[in-house]
Amino acid sequence: MNFYELLSYARRNTCSDIHLTVGTHTAVRRFGELELLEPIPDPQEVEDTILSILNEEQKARVLSGKDLDFSGITPDGARMRVNVYHQRNNLAASIRLLENTTPTFATLGLPDTVRKLADEPRGLILVTGPTGSGKTTTLAAIIDHINKNQKKHVLTIEDPIEYIYPHGKAMIHQREVGRDVDSFATALRSALREDPDIILVGEMRDYETISAAVTAAETGHLVLSTLHTTSAPQTIERIVDACPPHGQNQMRMQLASVLKGVITQQLLPLNGEEGRVVATEILLNNEAVGNLIRENKMHQLESTMQSNLASGMHTLNNDLRMLVMHGKITRDVAMQYSSNPKELMQYI
Predict the structure, then answer these.
(1) Do residues 201 and 336 share a domain?
(2) What pTM does this model have?
(3) 132 and 72: one domain?
(4) Among 103, 124, 269, 275, which has the minimal tally of Cβ within 10 Å of its Cβ?
(5) Distance CA 29, CA 27 (A)
(6) Which region holds residue 220: left if phi is over 0, alpha if psi is between -120 and 50, else beta?
(7) What CATH number does residue 91 fall under?
(8) ∠ CA(313), CA(316), CA(318), 5° rounding?
């Protein structure tokens, strides 16, 4: 099948990703599971398919041996995120299919605490989780909520741009790394001169970006970003560890002051039906949390989350327990995704 037939097949079957590789199977990811499609297509046909979605400049870059990241629009008007790369001296492409409409908190099944965080006037909010856990989608729901309810100037810095936001109550400007600006850090430095109320940083990849994002939060902006971490305590440690040794204590002080919350999430297969459900861990900054961050006692954050359920915090194990109790996921799935299965078994 050609590229557009493959897109149509993926959409009909609720696939999130397509993998094209010269010389082997085409694959799709459906509800988190990878499926190989038969038969193995002709190698030249796959290479032609990959090249057909590139413009001349992109083709020249790929054929010179370089990788390529970009976003595009499918024939049905939906957006896709594409990465073209080389393996075993052959071309390959990973294509993430994005929804036509911006998601909402309700459709994603996110807790009400996330909406409350979206209404914060300033500070730092982090959405974390492994690859494919829906971090970008959660950020899109937060921006959509702001767009519908707040008269704010929102500036996004993305690599690449995934969701497109029309102006609602908010004015939204979207900058793409590599096309509109050289890097996240460069865009963040410029952002402070562009009168934003809210800044979305697609990913905090390095110390320069982390430092610029925290500084933006300190100067009165609401900053949203993501990291590839699997728990709230690990998120704080990752940010601090990215700093040079002489700056780590200062970063802990800054985080204790500007952090509003950490939303850690994973997508789990539903019990007895197709689809996935989100499991979250939420850390909110209060006096106790701020003190633990300043004193480098991140190992105590989990017990603080457990003892502050009434304020909207909870650990991943607590959410997994609730999902099992409500029949959303099986006990085996909960154990598989828990970072502390022994504790989870005691909860259940």
Answers:
(1) yes
(2) 0.90
(3) no
(4) 275
(5) 7
(6) left
(7) 3.30.450.90
(8) 70
CB contact at 8 A, 40 and 24: yes
- Number of CB atoms found within 10 A of residue 274's CB: 10
Tell me which residue has tokens 């402070």.
192
Q: Which two tokens stand for residue 191?
A: 């952002």
Stretch 281-292: mean pLDDT, rounded? Answer: 97
- Give me the sign of the Cα torsion angle 51, 52, 54, 59: positive
CATH code at position 299:
3.40.50.300
233, burial (CB in 10 Å: exposed 0-12, middle 13-18, buried 19+): buried
Output phi, psi for 137, to 5 deg: -65, -40
- Band (pLDDT 50/70/90 cuts) for residue 87 is very high
* Residues 320 and 339 sit within 8 Å (Cβ to Cβ): no
pLDDT for 137-156, tens place per residue?
A: 999 999 999 999 999 999 99
Where are the extended beta strands (E) located within 213-332?
222-227, 259-269, 276-284
Contact at 8 Å (CB) between 200 and 156?
A: yes
Q: Where are the beta strands (DSSP E) in 152-254?
A: 153-158, 171-176, 198-201, 222-227
The total of structural domains in the chain comes to: 2
Q: What is the pLDDT of residue 213?
A: 96
Q: What share of the chain is helix, strand, coil (3-state, %, to 5)?
A: 40, 25, 35
C-beta atoms surrounding 143 within 10 Å: 23
Tokens 């605490």 label which residue?
113
Q: How confident is the model at residue 167 (pLDDT cuts 50, 70, 90)?
A: confident
Distance in angstroms (rounded) separating the CA atoms of residues 293 and 306: 17
First to last CA, the chain: 48
Give the domain range for residue 78.
Answer: 3-97
Read off the pLDDT of each residue in 283-304 and give the average, rounded to a whole number: 97
- Quote the pLDDT of residue 77: 76
At residue 162, the pLDDT reads 86
CB atoms near residue 258 (< 10 Å): 21
